[in-house]
């Protein structure tokens, strides 16, 4: 069989635009889900039994069912309650909720890794709980979760391809569209794979460089 | 419970059986290939190491859905054979799974302290004995939690095989929702079945981990935990 990439060239602009959509929805759902995950973590860590059980249930449900089923539930299931969402809204909500469950677990791991002695030292200095949280445990916790959050971002970027199934015009969707127009399956899938791989690689690389500037001071815990 | 509901549930359970068939066959094949990749990645010979490292890095850096389409469209074009949907699903999940288990095996092998290999060398053990009698029994115990996570991910990824036309659990739920016009009920039932499968896998994994952990006295446990590298 002959590989011929010439047929794909006219579609490169389309693919890059779609890549922009993939990246955009990843950033948006990472931010929305990230903020929500803090609330989920706070609920899970709270001494109120009911609240912590709801948070655990949420995390367990979203981490143990396929993202595709979650997308279907939101896109096809919510209209039963009269909530009609377009493809972009449904994808955004599904990816955000999914991401929040994973991030909540990551954050929990980060805070539990902060040495108890640091918090006790803060208490001994007479700091109140909020100051201890923001000035003592937050930075070491952030530093501990940073690599996992970067991994989760890349993972979210790759799994956002599943939103193509309900028709979100992101990279995977463009790949399938171009495939059905050109029949150059291997070529278009290879270029798509390269775009996904290179983007993920670039994101990790930039994040690693940024890490050096974000956490310059040394904390020995 | 009405008869209608039971009929719907039976349709979904039939899909779930195919999900399990797909995942167990792809899980076994993927783990076998992943074992080879793990050995390759930890090999001291560059010619064995690099192909394994490249395979694992590339497959893990690309969406699973894209790889499924690659097998779906690519295998007939490259090899001139038409695979049925089950085989396409099996092959793509096994190839993806191998990259993930390959990484798990690499991590577990590297987590076994170097002194163990050196001691085995000093005792004059050959490659196979060093691998199967010294390294692997310790590495497997370390690999169990990650292996559990891998299986749960495999079950979740298998939902994507429905896209290429194989009727597994998610596809069965989609078909059911078109019949009953109740997508919420159909997908909630599917989600519940997925949850039960994951729950059973994670409980089994915990039990296996406990079985594999040697029962030591309190002092030995403390010593061991200070020696065992943590992390995953």
CATH topology (fold) name of chain A: MetI-like fold
Low-confidence stretches of chain A: none
Mean pLDDT of chain B: 90
Distance between the termini of chain A: 59 Å
Query: What multimeric state do the chains show?
Result: heterodimer
Shape of chain B: flat
CATH superfamily of chain A: MetI-like
Helix amount of chain A, in percent? over 70%
Q: Tell me what the CATH architecture of chain A is.
A: Orthogonal Bundle
**What pair of chains forms the biggest interface?**
A-B, 36 and 38 residues
List how many beta strands of chain B DSSP finds: 0
- Overall mean pLDDT of chain A stands at 91
Task: Name the features.
heterodimer, A: 221 residues, mainly alpha, MetI-like fold, flat, B: 232 residues, 81% helix, disordered C terminus
Task: Report on the architecture of this protein.
The complex is a heterodimer of chains A (221) and B (232). By secondary structure, chain A is mainly α. Chain A has one domain (10-214): MetI-like fold. Chain A is built from eight helices and no strands. Chain A has helices at residues 12-45, 49-63, 67-77, 87-113, 116-124, 129-159, 171-182, 185-214. Chain A is flat. Chain A starts with 11 loop residues before the first helix and ends in a 7-residue tail after the last helix. Chain B has 232 residues and is mostly helical. Chain B is 81% helix and 0% strand. Chain B is built from nine helices and no strands. Chain B has helices at residues 3-41, 46-60, 64-79, 85-111, 114-122, 127-157, 169-180, 183-212, 218-227. In chain B, helix 7 packs antiparallel against helix 8 (183-212). The longest helix of chain B has 39 residues, at 3-41. Mean pLDDT of chain B is 90; it is low at 227-232. At the A-B interface, helix 3, helix 7 and helix 8 of A face helix 3, helix 6, helix 7 and helix 8 of B.
Helix and strand topology:
The complex is a heterodimer of chains A (221) and B (232).
Chain A: H1 12-45, H2 49-63, H3 67-77, H4 87-113, H5 116-124, H6 129-159, H7 171-182, H8 185-214
Helix pairs in contact in A: 1-2, 1-4, 1-7, 2-4, 3-4, 4-6, 5-6, 6-8, 7-8
Chain B: H1 3-41, H2 46-60, H3 64-79, H4 85-111, H5 114-122, H6 127-157, H7 169-180, H8 183-212, H9 218-227
Helix pairs in contact in B: 1-2, 1-4, 1-7, 1-8, 2-4, 3-4, 4-6, 5-6, 6-8, 7-8
């Amino acid at each position: 069989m002959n590989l011929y990439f010439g047929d794909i060239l006219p579609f490169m602009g389309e693919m890059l635009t779609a890549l922009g959509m993939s990246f955009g929805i990843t950033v948006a759902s990472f931010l929305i889900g990230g903020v929500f995950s803090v609330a989920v973590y706070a609920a899970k860590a709270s001494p109120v039994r009911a609240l912590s059980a709801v948070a655990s249930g949420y995390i367990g449900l979203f981490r143990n069912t396929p993202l595709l089923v979650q997308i279907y539930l939101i896109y096809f299931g919510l209209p039963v309650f009269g909530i009609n969402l377009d493809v972009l809204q449904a994808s955004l909500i599904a990816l955000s909720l999914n991401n929040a469950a994973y991030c909540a677990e990551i954050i929990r791991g980060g805070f539990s890794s902060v040495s108890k002695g640091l918090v006790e030292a803060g208490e001994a200095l007479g700091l109140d709980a909020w100051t201890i949280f923001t000035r003592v445990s937050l930075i070491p916790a952030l530093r501990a979760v940073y690599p996992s959050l970067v991994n989760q971002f890349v993972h979210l970027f790759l799994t956002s391809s599943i939103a193509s199934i309900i028709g979100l015009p992101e990279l995977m969707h463009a790949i399938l569209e171009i495939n059905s127009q050109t029949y150059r399956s291997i070529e278009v899938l290879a270029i798509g794979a390269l775009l996904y791989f290179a983007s993920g690689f670039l994101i990790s690389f930039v994040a690693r460089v940024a890490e050096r500037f974000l956490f310059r001071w040394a904390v020995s815990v | 419970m009405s008869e209608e509901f039971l009929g719907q549930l039976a349709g979904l359970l039939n899909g779930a059986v195919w999900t399990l068939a797909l995942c167990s066959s792809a899980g076994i094949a993927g783990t076998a290939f992943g074992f080879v990749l793990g050995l390759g990645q930890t090999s001291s010979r560059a010619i064995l190491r690099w192909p394994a490292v490249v395979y694992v890095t590339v497959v893990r850096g690309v969406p699973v859905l894209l790889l499924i389409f690659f097998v779906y469209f690519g295998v007939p074009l490259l090899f001139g054979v038409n695979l049925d949907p089950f085989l396409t699903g099996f092959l793509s999940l096994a190839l993806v799974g191998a990259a993930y288990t390959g990484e798990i095996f690499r991590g577990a092998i590297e987590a076994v302290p170097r002194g163990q290999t050196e001691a085995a060398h000093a005792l004059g053990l050959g490659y196979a004995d060093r691998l199967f009698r010294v390294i692997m029994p310790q590495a497997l115990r370390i690999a169990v939690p990650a292996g559990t996570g891998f299986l749960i991910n495999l079950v979740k990824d298998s939902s994507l095989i429905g896209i290429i036309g194989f009727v597994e659990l998610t596809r069965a739920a989609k078909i059911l929702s078109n019949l009953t016009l109740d997508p919420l009920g159909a997908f909630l039932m599917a989600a519940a079945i997925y949850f039960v499968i994951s729950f059973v896998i994670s409980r089994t994994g915990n039990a296996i981990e406990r079985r594999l952990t040697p029962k030591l006295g309190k002092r030995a446990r403390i010593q061991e935990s200070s020696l065992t590298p943590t992390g995953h």
